[in-house]
Amino acid sequence: MSRDQRVRHNWALLFARYKAALMQKPLVVVFTLAPAFLGAPLRHYDFMLKGLQEVETDLRSLNIPLLLLQGEPTEELPRFANARSANTINAGAMVTDYSPLHISRRWKSAVAQQLTIPLYEVDAHNIVPCWLASGKLEYSARTIRPKINALLGNFLTPFPALEPLPTTPREPLVEWESVRQKLHADPSVPAVDWLLPGEKAAADCLNSFIQQKLSGYALERNDPNADAISNLSPYLHFGHISAQFIATKVMASQTLEEDRKAFLEELIVRRELSDNFCAYNDHYDSYDGIPNWAKETLAQHNGDKREYLYTAEEFERSATHEPLWNATQHELVQSGKIHGYMRMYWAKKILEWSRTPMEAFDIAIALNDRYALDGREPNGYAGVAWSIGGVHDRPWFEREVYGKIRYMNANGCARKFDVQRYIKRWML
Ligand SMILES: Cc1cc2nc3c(=O)[nH]c(=O)nc-3n(C[C@H](O)[C@H](O)[C@H](O)COP(=O)(O)OP(=O)(O)OC[C@H]3O[C@@H](n4cnc5c(N)ncnc54)[C@H](O)[C@@H]3O)c2cc1C
Questions:
Q1: Rounded to an integer, what distance in angstroms lies between the CA atom of residue 295 and that of residue 82?
Q2: What's the CA gap between 169 and 160, in Å, rounded?
Q3: pLDDT score for 84
Q4: Quick check: 198 and 51 in contact, CB under 8 A?
Q5: CA of 146 to the centre of ligand 1 (A)
Q6: What average pLDDT score do residues 57-77 get?
Q7: CA 46 and chain centroid, separation
Q8: Residue 39 clears pLDDT 90, i.e. is over it
Q9: Residue 281: its pLDDT value, please?
């Protein structure tokens, strides 16, 4: 278990259970806790470990043990699997979930090379498995949408129940306190308390979204004061909830079609497009990964005079001249998330006020990955690449600094929502 940290509605776990039954073997769920995952601070480890603790309890009720290995996955997992196959238990196969990120792909191929048993990879994150949705880098939502829609019906099948194992596991329970003590996660980005981690909290979040917010989503989702969006992204990021389960619940809800459609477009098309971007673009987290038209136009405007210039450290401290931008950065640092509409504004102003677009790209990725609870995620890399590098977008009217990259400004925000109210909320 890696990206999809849940017991319910998890195709990778269901497949592992099926395989175990077929091979007449016991089933063990293994999570390897790497000492540092892309610089994740305490905020992320706290959310993840609490979620995993719940996974352990729920698995135990099905007689399935959770084992937590600590160390480098490329060393710990082969050691674990090969030791198991050498003793009486004799491991028969390993099943893993899917992520398009470099680190995960590197881990998997290194583990696969050292295993003597088959390794299966199951995409439990996307509704249409990433490699089936498309075999190439897609240009935009317009090009991937029909491909996903054509296959969606095949994959929106009901989840079977996860069958319990017949006997109580002999493996000891994880000692969570000692796991926490051994962590070296940066405490300067503390845990959040406004969003509880875990599968149950994720299910509650989905239910209250459907009951209280989905109706009106199409109209209000771009107003950061409206509390109209789902807040499901941290749960989706850690795999505490299945996107397929969310989609079926939303489809079955008694809400206007325009609200359901608007939400499903984000949850399915935009989200799965991000996985496509990372799966087929080796430079998804750097300026090199943006399209040629964007590189050309940004290069032509690289020498343009910037009205304001800030360093990475000034951005991080919300020390710009503009209260609205500072409020977005405060929202990120304090809550671990920026409202979806403001995320675009936040990244575009980093482009406008940095020395070069390359520097802007790196600053936006670093801040998003460090503070956002849903950071280090394909959506984040695609979001930054869209805002700063025109990925999945098209050329717009040419202007200073941005070239043909789509522009946003504070006046545009003021036409959409009460900017002062947003600033007041986050600058206190
Ligand atoms: C610069 C920038 C950085 C971003 N960083 C992240 C990130 O680190 N993690 C992350 O999950 N999303 C990121 N996004 C995408 C989007 O802003 C968030 O998914 C959304 O704000 C999450 O809040 P929500 O779950 O309440 O959204 P809702 O509006 O309720 O959307 C429901 C779900 O749909 C998906 N979704 C919504 N908008 C997008 C989008 N534009 N692209 C892809 N999927 C989308 C997400 O999975 C989201 O949880 C970023 C966007 C930009 C412009």
A1: 47
A2: 23
A3: 67
A4: yes
A5: 21
A6: 95
A7: 16
A8: no
A9: 98
Q: Report how far apart, in Å, the C-alpha atoms of 412 and of each of 299, 324, 349 are.
A: 26, 12, 13
Please name every residue paired with 33 in a beta bridge, in sequence order, or none if there are none: 70
How far is the CA of 4 from the CAs of 91, 92, 243, 269, in angstroms?
Answer: 22, 22, 11, 19
Task: Ligand 1, residue 234: give the atom nearest the CA.
Answer: 11
7/241 Cα distance (integer angstroms): 9
CB–CB of 336/376 below 8 Å? no
pLDDT tops 60 at residue 93: yes
Return the pLDDT at 280: 98
**Calpha distance 134→301 (Å, rounded):** 34
Taking Cα atoms as reference points, which of 149, 159, 338, 339 lies closest to residue 261?
149
**Tokens of residue 66, six digits:** 């959770």
User: Which residue's alpha carbon is at the smallest distance from atom 42 of ligand 1?
Assistant: 270
The β-bridge partners of 121 are 96
pLDDT tens-digit profile of 310-360? 999 999 999 999 999 999 999 999 999 999 999 999 999 999 999 999 999
**Interval 211-261: pLDDT, tens:** 999 999 999 999 999 999 999 999 999 999 999 999 999 999 999 999 999
User: Ligand 1: distance of its center to the CA of 36 in Å?
Assistant: 24
Residue 85 has pLDDT above 80, yes or no: no
Residue 38 has pLDDT above 70, yes or no: no
Q: At 215, which amino acid appears?
A: S
Q: How confident is the model at residue 82 (pLDDT cuts 50, 70, 90)?
A: confident
Nearest C-alpha to atom 4 of ligand 1 is from which residue? 380
- Angle, nearest 10°, between helix axes 340-352 and 357-371? 140
Domains in the chain, CATH or no CATH each: 1-124 (3.40.50.620), 199-280 (1.25.40.80), 287-427 (1.10.579.10)
Residue nearest to atom 49 of ligand 1 (CA): 233
d(CA 266, CA 392): 14
Going by alpha carbons, the residue nearest to atom 52 of ligand 1 is 383
Tokens representing 123 are: 């995409």
Ligand 1: list residues with CB < 6 Å. 221, 229-233, 236-237, 266-267, 270-271, 274, 340, 343-344, 347, 368, 372, 374-375, 377, 379-380, 383-384, 386-387
